[in-house]
Design brief:
The protein is α/β, with parallel strands linked by helices. It contains 17 helices and 14 strands. The chain has helices at 12-22, 35-41, 53-60, 71-77, 103-115, 132-143, 163-168, 181-194, 208-239, 243-251, 272-285, 289-316, 344-354, 368-376, 397-400, 421-427, 443-449, and strands spanning 2-6, 27-31, 65-68, 80-83, 120-124, 149-153, 173-177, 203-207, 325-329, 358-362, 391-393, 404-409, 433-436, 452-455. Helix 5 (103-115) links the parallel strand 4 (80-83) and strand 5 (120-124). Helix 4 (71-77) packs across helix 5 (103-115). The longest helix has 32 residues, at 208-239. The chain starts with a strand and ends with a strand. The structure holds uridine-5'-diphosphate-xylopyranose (2 copies). Residues 156-160, 219, 222, 226, 260-262, 264, 267-269, 271-272, 333-334 line the site of one uridine-5'-diphosphate-xylopyranose.
């Protein structure tokens, strides 16, 4: 059995590494058109930071796990081809800002059709709009020289920062396929791959559209919980209730459950917003405006929360942050990843820069060029207001605090909980404030040091 995966990103890389680890008899090739990324996968410094990933890759690389740019050659030898290329939200034309941009999916389908020299099973790993399998099949049918293709949907549910844990012991593996003899056989082949380590009862098989839709719905439900608790955080701030206490109280109801109830500056990451917008677009397409509006509010609430957080900083700093330094602790969209896609820190930094603040960011894993590119855009002007001259990146949280009026904690990195805040306080302008966007700090303790503290929902 030979597997190839097109797209060596956050999803393709770790997923294939796990298959290689758990199914040593299967040869796994991960290919990408980005040669620099492939070179990184073959080096000591992997292109993505993910706890436990280094060990898995080192264990299998060069044995049954290979990273290469030879897309055509890998398609030829593979029995199963995973497609894990990115599917960003369209920024142009019809559906701009909502629909998924399927250009990479289409181009990969054409590449597969061109180089396939026998029957292949194509597995959609990328999150895609419902019915994309149909598109892929049509392209394959029209362009191949008579080979049979089966298309399966196998959405990924791993979360960044815990990808290896999630892959090792997934709550479920979902595989969608067609109820035809060919479809059933393909489905079974993929079930057999996962059955190397996942208990059979956790491998769910469905029809194609259910599987594709389930991915969008799972992310929409998770994000909805965060927007729901964040909406309540605003009410807590106004009334004196404490959002963590409310979350704890409602989460004890086994029908609600405790997970994904942490109020925050907002959710980020490459999936939540994109998938909800995808769902919204789908509902609009099928003339279900009420359903579309319902889900769209999950994203609107999230945007509001990010701006609200920045507004609270400005309001608490005597309604002006012009020329004040704000230290931003954390830029990744969550801890234990170097991924910054849709990180709430981007919006908060932009808002503060628009208020003429001087913003100094510290993140343990995100490099300076990435921070600048996310906030300022490729040409350096996205934030406007001459922001580029007021944005700096510090090498440590202590450096970031020098002359700062406030600290805004935007990622819940563990190291932020154990810093020497007395030392930090001494370096800051007085009065010194902390705005905890993740509710990870002991505010009572910080207050004894002299800090003014503000946490989400408190
Ligand atoms: C994944 C999923 O595929 C996406 O749909 C999901 O919603 C988020 O997670 P991810 O692995 O995070 O994407 O994307 P990324 O890290 O951008 O990796 C995609 C890779 O595909 C890139 O390295 C890119 O170079 C590669 N690619 C893209 C190709 O090799 N060929 C293409 O035609 C397009
Ligand atoms: C998510 C899904 O969890 C995963 O199943 C899917 O495959 C991809 O999308 P990911 O985006 O990597 O994973 O991270 P996740 O842990 O879901 O967090 C998303 C965002 O929500 C982060 O910014 C996180 O900080 C935020 N969050 C999460 C909260 O603000 N509060 C919470 O209670 C949970």
């Amino acid at each position: 059995m030979k597997i190839c995966c097109i797209g060596a990103g956050y999803v393709g890389g770790p997923t294939m590494a796990m298959i290689a680890l758990k199914a040593p008899s299967i040869e796994v090739r991960v290919v990408d058109m980005n040669a620099a990324r492939i070179a990184a996968w073959n080096s000591d410094t992997l292109p993505i930071y993910e706890p436990g990933l280094d060990e898995v890759v080192k264990e299998r690389r060069g044995k049954n796990l290979h990273f290469s740019t030879d897309v055509a050659g890998s398609i030829k030898v593979a029995d199963i081809i995973f497609v894990a290329v990115n599917t960003p939200t369209k920024t142009y034309g019809i559906g701009a800002g909502r629909a998924a941009d399927l250009r990479f999916i289409e181009s990969v389908a054409r590449t597969i059709a061109e180089h396939a020299n026998g029957p292949k099973i194509i597995v959609e790993k990328s999150t895609i709009p419902v019915k994309t399998a149909e598109t892929i099949k049509e392209i394959l049918r029209a362009n191949s020289s008579g080979h049979t293709f089966e298309v399966l949907s196998n959405p990924e549910f791993l979360a960044e920062g815990t990808a290896i844990k999630d892959l090792l012991a997934p709550d479920r593996v979902l595989i969608g396929g067609e109820h035809t003899p060919g479809g059933e056989a393909a489905l079974q082949a993929l079930v057999d791959v996962y059955a190397h380590w996942v208990p059979r009862e956790r491998i769910i098989t469905t029809n194609l559209w259910s599987s594709e839709l389930s991915k969008l719905v799972a992310n929409a439900f998770l994000a909805q919980r965060i927007s729901s608790i964040n909406s309540i955080s605003a009410l807590c701030e106004a009334t004196g209730a404490d959002v963590d206490e409310v979350a704890n109280a409602i989460g004890k109801d086994s029908r609600i459950g405790p997970k994904f109830l942490k109020a925050s500056v907002g959710f980020g990451g490459s999936c939540f917003q994109k998938d909800i917008l995808n769902l919204v677009y789908l509902c609009e397409h099928f003339r279900l405006p009420e359903v579309a509006a319902y889900w769209e509010w999950v994203v609107k609430m999230n945007d509001w929360q990010k701006h609200r957080f920045a507004e609270r900083i400005v309001a608490s700093l005597f309604n002006t942050v012009a020329d004040k330094r704000i230290a931003v602790y954390g830029f990744a969209f969550k801890k234990d990843t170097n991924d910054t896609r849709e990180s709430p820190a981007i919006a908060v930094c932009r808002d503060l820069l628009a208020e003429q603040a001087r913003v100094t960011v510290y993140d343990p894993k995100v490099p300076e060029r990435e921070i600048r590119a996310e906030i300022l855009g490729k040409d350096g002007t996205a934030a406007g207001h001459g922001a580029e001259t007021r944005l700096t990146v510090a090498a440590s949280p202590y450096d970031a605090a020098v002359d700062a009026h406030a600290i805004a904690v935007l990622t819940e990195w563990d190291e932020f909980k154990t810093l020497d805040y007395a030392k930090i306080f001494a370096r800051m302008c007085q009065p010194a404030s902390v705005f905890d966007g993740r509710n990870i700090l002991d505010c009572a303790k910080l207050q004894t040091l002299g800090f003014r503290t503000h946490a989400v929902g408190k």
